[in-house]
Amino acid sequence: MNLLEKLELGWRKLASELDGKQHAERKLLEALQRDYQEETQLAEALKKQSEKVPYDHLRRKLLEIAEAEKHHAELLLEKIRELGGETPETADPARGDAALTTLDLLKILEEEKEEYAEYLNARALAKEAEREDIRQLLERIREEEALHRKELLDIVSRLNPLPIDR
Ligand SMILES: [Fe+2]
Ligand SMILES: [Fe+2]
Asked: How far is the CA of 10 from the centre of ligand 1 (A)?
């Protein structure tokens, strides 16, 4: 192989690596936008549900979790912007898309479980896109989701003391 061919090969390899990274970044951006929407909707749903809870301390706990989800959404939005993405549209309850805001606590608990898995997936994308800062953020959020799941399970079982399939 002559020098020119070697150079061309090297260049092509670099281009395809850049391509791969760009592709991973796009996938990561999409995942973050999805997560942003879910966090926002979850925060709304938790707030709505808290209104129905007749015990102050449990209601406060739900509102705390709702605040944490809102904070997650804000942190995700920062990274979405860094990646050049736009603020994703969130469902407007006033427009009749209230599906998530009418979720009961058990469904919210399910959502938390799914979020936990979703963050695993997004974390892998962050690694592929070589965004260590985002990978760490997603890891931190994921740990908090695990905590929420425990807290919600506790709240649900206090409100509805039936045996729950764990
Ligand atoms: Fe969250
Ligand atoms: Fe959560």
From this structure: 43
